[in-house]
Amino acid sequence: MDTILKTGITGLDEVLRGGLPRQNNLMVEGAPGSGKTTLGLGFIYAGAEQCGEPGAIVSFELDAAKLLRDAAGFNWDLQKHIDAGRIKVIQTSPAVLLNEFRNPDGAFADALRNMGARRLLIDGLTPMRLYAEMHDMPFREDLHLLIEGINRLGVTTLVTAERDESLGTVPAHERFVFDTIISLTREEKNRRVQRRLTVLKSRGHDFIAGSHTMRIEGGKGIHVYRRAQSRPMVSQDQPTSGQRLSTGCEAIDEMMDGGLYEGSVTMVSGISGTGKTVLSVQFLRSAIAAGHKTLLVSLDEHPRQLMRNADSLGMDMTGMIERGELFVHYESPLELELDVHFDRIVKLIEEHGIDCVVFDSCAVYEMTSPTEVADYLYAIATYCKDRLATVFFNYESPELLGLSQISQELKGSHLVDNIILLNYVEISTLLRRAIAIPKVRGSRNRQVTREYLIGEGGLSLLPEDMGANPSDAVPQLPFSSYYGLLSRSPSRQSPAIEDAVANGTKMPESIDLPTQDNP
């Protein structure tokens, strides 16, 4: 017989590294509304439905009709298994149950043996404690009697226990006598309810420690999403490649010494309107042309809006999606939970063999989960690197002009291989766009600031000796004629202007340039 029992709860067996040791006594603790009874019902139902293991439910407070009603809300046909003798609901009192456990050949033990029960749910431990207190009986003795009785039955038992909020937890002695303890929490944060599941201990068995996201989903029941940071390392020898991918813009590739290394992570930072999303679609379009499968994870814009904007620039995003070359995953930031979000992205990547991914934008992660965002980005970057997938992280800088830091909270620049900075530069009365690439690991990137336009096909860089439209107030010279372009107020002096001022000669003329396309 297999020594590990699968709980059947979606995601929980993954956290428990396969399931529970058979005949372990499991306690699920939590405050009212945290999902204890639902998890217990799911444990019994999954045993009968998926594993062919009969089970019994002992309830002190809920009658069978309410249990059936609650189960029906998750599309669990409990009545079918009751009629087939695979599930038995026993409504009793703590006194009767304890008395049954004093007699190894009592009616309760006979009922479980006759149905071949392999699982048992006792809901819950708190009524038994209250019964003992009301009758001035030591609950510790009743608890040991309960555990001894359960052990004699040879079943795997789940017992629910209401957390004592005044103590902050279930009393310590109850924690000592159970083999496995799972703690459920429910808290309201920014007017949103967040549920967490934590395995506190499991004797003789390994598990994934830490706090995992838990949801109670209509029509499904409990769904546990393991924390993103706990994803196992595929290999100590991380795959690397000397192959390069194009960003979709030849001039940017040249600045990066040939483009992006396959499997690298790039952060594109800039204020709204500088073209981060446009550059990302350019990259994905180029990757598709090179035979790659691509994914755009959008947290800012709805896919319909993205398609309209990209199509207006001649990049045919609609066609890429319809042909199955590009997948778009959109989630609203209003109810975003990082563990759930991570799980969905991983499934998409693995199901479709995706090897080029854009996240637009990481600032949303920072807004929804400021304390978890750095760990999350590290987890997703590590996962993608292990698959040799090339990643773009778009990050919206809060600064309109210049860039004093990439992010105050994120501190994510060390996670990435490449950094592309997009920002506005104010010269006279004109706003011009500037690109700089200060970091490209393993490359001799050009440490220059270039001017670019957004038009048909995406971003295009101007020749280094060209400027923008002329201005009557101040000559519009090439960027190479200015100082401090990445600062808030670049210097309008230049060697050419300084020479003209020093020698009393004519100021240099502004250069005529094609105007920016604004489709």
Task: Describe, in plain words, how this protein is organized in 3D.
The protein has helices at residues 12-15, 36-49, 64-72, 78-83, 94-102, 107-115, 125-134, 139-153, 172-177, 250-255, 276-289, 303-312, 317-322, 338-352, 362-368, 373-386, 495-503, and strands spanning 4-5, 20-21, 25-30, 55-59, 87-91, 119-123, 156-162, 180-189, 192-202, 211-217, 221-225, 244-245, 260-261, 265-270, 294-298, 326-330, 356-360, 390-396, 418-427, 430-440, 449-455, 458-461. The strands form 4 sheets. It has a 9-stranded mixed β-sheet. A 9-stranded mixed β-sheet has the order 16-15-17-18-14-19-20-21-22, sandwiched between helices. It has a two-stranded antiparallel ribbon with strand order 1-2. 31% of the residues lie in helices and 25% in strands. It has 519 residues and is α/β, with parallel strands linked by helices. α5 (94-102) crosses α8. The model is unreliable at 468-473 (pLDDT under 50). A hairpin with an 8-residue loop joins β20 and β21 (449-455).
